[in-house]
Predict the 3D structure of the following.
Amino acid sequence: MEIAILDLTRACAMGASLFAASAVASPDTGTRENTGLKYWQWDEGGISVLIEQRLPDQTRAFFLARGFTSEAANVIGDGCVFKMDVRNPAATGSVIEYDLTQWQVIVDDEREPMMLKDQWDEKWRAMDLPSPPRIAFRWALLPIRQKLNPGDYNWGMSAFGFPAGARFDLEFTWLQNGERRSGTFRDLECAPDVESLETREAEL
Amino acid sequence: MLILGVTLSYPGLCPAEDDLRGRPLYEVKDRPPAPDFRLEDTEGDFHRLSDYRGKVVILNFWATWCPPCRAEMPSMQRAWKHLKARGIEMLAVNVGEDEDIIFTFTADYPADYPLLLDREGQIIKEWPVLGLPTTFVIDRDGRIAYRAVGGRDWEDPLVVEPLLKLAK
């Protein structure tokens, strides 16, 4: 997998070619030895982004423990949930900002915005989920937008709403000291559900 | 029990205390006034933030299920024992959970400083908090002097020195 980082602002200002203004990074990606879950890690352009699979059952259990009904826990468990961790790794100086409303999910060349807290909350309201589990849900998700000073970081889940095993790209943007940057995580894969894991084990 | 052990050791999900070192506090420009509140703690006592005027207050927003919150709590507890003697108070506002959950949690993560309950998540809405944990340092005049987004090592000199300077 390749992730290209492109400093759009500088490229436009300098009239430079796209090629000259871009750099190609090799992100760290792989499988956690102790869980078998996949992760994707970006460390370029003054930002560190980790995306890591969560098993549907792991997510169901988490939200059942926060007061979700079985029905609602199944909805979010089946919602392609990842752990996401966004950091400003700088020791001093650099300030980064991100805004999830600007991030784009790409499936079969079709672009769409990420599903965010408010869309999920509409589902919980329609299911008459009471306030405490809805509060827990809102705070468990990665904040929609955030300014991160040196040493700051944030952690949370992101739920994309795809079926287990689905694959997609995620184009993400951020500002580094006010300068717009972007990158793409390619071929992100929603974690498989228990049935497919059992099938995989049986095949082995 | 086995499942819990695996979950807590999940790399990246549960930041170790080591991961918190070297992360400074961010100085808040112009020091805006800290929004006041009155909240009950897990012992049934009420705390009004403005009653702490004249002291430096570390105000932490957290939840038991939040891994970085758990990671920083041991260093908060250790630091508070020293900082209290220097006139620095610590308040931790739990968001959206009840006494029973917190009581169980503190068996593993002891905290002697007040644990306040924002059961409906109303107070946190008044503060510039987007994610947990977020911590504010409030100066003796009731203004927000520093902010930390994400966990910190509360014994790290990068964190302690600004606090002590503020309390002088």
